[in-house]
Amino acid sequence: MEFSPLPGGLSRSSLYVGRHPPKAVRGYGCHVWDDRGRRLIDLNANFTTLIHGHAHPEIISAAAEALRDGVCFGLSNLFEEPHARTLLARLPGADCVRYVSTGTEAVMAAIRLARAYTGRERLLFVKDAYHGWSDTALLSSHDHPAGVPDGVADGVERVPLNDVTALAEIVERNGHNMAAIILDLVPNRVGLIPLSQEFVNTARALANAWDMLLIFDEVMSFRLSFRGRQEQYLAEPDLTILGKLIGGGFPIGAVVGRASVMQLLNPARAAPVEHGGTFTANPVTLRAGQVALQLLTAEAISRLNQLGDELRRQLKDAADGWEVRGIGSFARLIPRAEDGKRDGKAQAAKIRKLWWAAYEREVLLMPTGLMCLSTPMDSDTVDDIVARLADASNYVSKAASAASSVL
Ligand code: PMP
Hints:
alpha/beta; Aspartate Aminotransferase, domain 1; 2 domains; four-stranded mixed beta sheet; 13 helices; binds 4'-deoxy-4'-aminopyridoxal-5'-phosphate
């Protein structure tokens, strides 16, 4: 293979799909054109960021105006407070916002806030949920991530998805030194299964009882309702972590939460929680993001969620041998285990085959097999996606059963 200046030929490891991956050339609406002449239906949308598709005219004109006015400043800018107020109007329990440039950084900031607020260190994640690639967040899914000091693992506990008994036990054992419970309400890497109401209620009650914070990571799930996925639960978080779509396609992350916690960031106080970032809250992101949020009305979300229902309903009939998971505008095809046993490696290999089979049928998935809808799509797009994915999933199933009969 020809040497690439990019390790593994990639700029981020989350793009890994094996072999020689195609490269994006341009995007418009819900399509991406690649360097091999394909026009793909984009169910990846840069890992759920582009909820209005590529090059939405109103978002582009907000960003273009921002480019003309100067892309970043060593001063606060006029677009921070309006964007923050837009977020707060959707998250009624929250009072303040701090911006960063990625979801990973937002998780890092929330963790630091929780530790400073409580004076404790330990954190509790759902096992295998993804919260970005910081040293600490990687420990939700890895025992010994390369390059992460062993000591970092001492600060992290993991609870199996929706295991209320284990949740209570872990907190009973460690609560005295626990700063926060951090939850993605629909963790994709745990199989895109929503957290149960009981699990979230228990987390809230334990956080209250032990004076620690409950943090919802809504970097992906915010798209599911006008007030984020948290709208569906009775429990409110102390902090919410946001990212992706709130920047209109430009780099962003945000921590949104109660004033009593967020005020620790106020640099005028003694020993504030440190935070910086040269590109934090840059006006291009905020102006594009403001428009993206305004376009994402309750009606737009409800239409997308209905399209998602339709997609999952049709896929259930069409994709033999695959389980259809998902909620709102998310869907995933998960290979059914033939003997009822789950083999993680075999499943991952099949999902990668599905990625390529879908690609060859001009549909772009996320490498985990996750797919998301965007507002330029309609029911004709859904029919088209189903026809292509039915073909792709049946092709992968047949190839797998042919391989096993040869063995
Ligand atoms: N939290 C969750 C729930 C995510 O899904 C992601 C990214 N997929 C992150 C955090 C990290 O965000 P980013 O990639 O912007 O660093």
